[in-house]
Amino acid sequence: MTGRERRSGADTRTQIQRVARQLFTEKGYEATSTRDLTEALGLTRSSLYYHFRNKEEILASLVEQRRRDLDELIDWVRDQPRTPDLARRTALRWLAGTTAEHLATMRLAHANQPVMRRITGHGIDVVGGIDELIDLLADERTDPQGRILLRMTFDTVRAALLAAPADVDPADVLAAARRATLALTGALADPAPDGADIPVPDVAGEPATDAVD
Asked: Which positions fall inside the HTH tetR-type domain (predicted)?
């Protein structure tokens, strides 16, 4: 196979992913047929199947792209000195690599949980990668609150996306996520304030109090 043919095949695969993401977003994953894809792409059914066996494999490939990004970030963290700002630098690096296309894929994943469970079952698991990343960033001094803050730090994009209207500019989603990331990593660097332990409400919704004899 020549280099030109290899590039052509890669370009076709990328085009399929781009058009599929757009159709899945506009029409919905379940409502998008193979015929919709081939007509939008100008491909025959056999040409589409040469690259992807079905719609699920296309969606899986979109998620797999993000998992590869995450694996590269994990490798990067392993090579970094354990400086106090490592969590912030890591979170901002992850955020800087997030594109509008990634946001669209995240929306698709959230809207299609059954198929996402199957994809995760096949080994493409971004959440598991985040767990590995948090284990790398945490140390023996990281208390439970610190681990929660770490988890929240790497969930700012998803939280901002779910809080935003569907027609919001992706740049605004990412800007909001960046502000949240800076706030959370700032909280990581600060010791827990006095009185941080908030009483847990009882069943009736009233703050729990210590028993008095």
From this structure: 10-70
Amino acid at 184: L
pLDDT 10s digits, 147-190 = 999 999 999 999 999 999 988 999 999 999 999 999 999 998 87
Task: Give the residue from 116, 157, 132 showing the smallest Cα distance to 71.
Answer: 132
Q: Dump pLDDT digits (tens) for 74-93.
A: 999 999 999 999 999 999 99
Nearest to 115 by CA among 45, 174, 55, 178: 55
Alpha carbon separation from 180 to 44, 73, 107, 137 (Å, rounded): 46, 20, 19, 18
- Give the C-alpha separation, 130 to 67, whole Å: 9
Number of Cβ within a 10 Å radius of residue 146:
18
pTM over 0.85: no
User: 207: helix, coil or strand?
Assistant: strand
Here the tokens at position 205 are 């919704």
Structure tokens at 212: 């008095």
